[in-house]
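Good day; I would like, with your permission, to put a structural problem before you. A protein sequence and the structure tokens that stand for its backbone fold form the material at issue. I would ask you to consider whether the tokens describe a fold that such a sequence might reasonably adopt. I set the record out below, with my sincere thanks for your time.
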Amino acid sequence: MDLPASFEHTMRQLLGVDYEAFREALLGEPAVSIRVNRDKWSEGVPYERVPWAAEGYYLPERPAFTFDPLLHAGSYYVQEASSMFVEQAVRQHLGTARVALDLCAAPGGKSTLLRSLLPDECVLVSNEVMRPRAQVLAENITKWGHPRCMVTSNYPADFTLLGPLFDLILVDAPCSGEGMFRKDETAVAEWSPENVAVCWQRQRDILTDIWPTLRPGGLLIYSTCTFNTAEDEENVRWMMDELGATLLPIETAPSWGITPSLVPADVAHAYRFLPGRTRGEGFFLAALRKPADAPAEHQGDAPKAKRGKKEKTKRPAMPVPAECKGWLTTNDYTFKVQDTDVVALPTDMEELHAILSERLYVLKAGITLAELKGRDALPAHELAMSTALRPDAFTRCELSYADALRYLRREAIALPSDMPRGFVIVTYRNIPLGFVKNIGNRANNLYPQEWRIRSGHLPESEVSVLVNEN
């Protein structure tokens, strides 16, 4: 990989005598890491811990993740280790929170991390402006399984009229991607000083748009996966000067290898992950507090137009089938039919859902329980993924590894002859994979067509990352 000459010049000036070690590491192999979902996987994990993340682990090599059923079941997420440092900012500075926003959330790594860290009663709103990426985000949020999540697809400016709604905002800003050079050669090819200039200005626009939605005293976490100071420390200094933000210290251990701010005069509490010093990819993070006495920005009265959403002719709401209301572990939900979907929304999320739905495009909220087809309620895959599913709501059938892959490819599978007819949840290592409908001589595979494993390749041996039996 040939690094851009102007990038090398800038980094040499920034790092001085440490540049050659940095460059050698940047051209080396990246670390591989995962983060475990403890709402689904309660057993031990046989790997070295990521020191700044309670459920982060380094793998000795990169397995064929596609062929691990537990990944598709949401038992873990493949996440770059450096970005897990968000956990320290949240643990050390958040406290209580009612509503949190991950503004630039796709594909979902930091959102699933936030969901595992936030108070259980807190609602997480995950946003992605690009609609195809928002669909991927919704898929990963669904697999993670927590019911108190919403996915939106809007520009940052669309949030401004909401007023001070969020206790926590994570802005993992679109950037020039220098920290991804050793993982993504496209990032190298697309890099230029001109693109860096575009990025730092766009980042300030994003921060300007979203700052009014942070409550006084609220926490904003700003991060990038780049190295230059224009997108990193200089933007933090701008937030302090122009927005009145207070920069917060984050306690770290020397053994973590985290580099402090490279322009420490007035941006002392910023944190860099540099290849060669830290076991992870390039990353930058700063935590900032909005003053508790900051004046509350005006919440507009006029709703924003919903991007890409056409008005539909309203029709009478269909009744919610009684059996659907018994599928969850508690009764603290409001049930409704949206088009032909039966949706369960935690009751105390209703007001927030109404506010966001009026002004934003909401892609997902709560739990989709079923699709209505005639008089039948076809259980939704999202229900099988949810941690709110009552364990005994449906018969369960444990699959072998080979059958689990067949199921995830949406191929036909055979259930034991004594399995009752009707809807059955198939599991792998006792973790739900989804639904089938057992009709006696065969089982109809109900795995989402768009999520299926498309590769016809068969691994030489079983891939089960969380259970290393080799």
Observations:
- The CA atoms of residues 87 and 113 lie 7 Å apart.
- The mean pLDDT is 93.
- Residues 322-381 form one domain.
- The first strand starts at residue 32 and ends at 36.
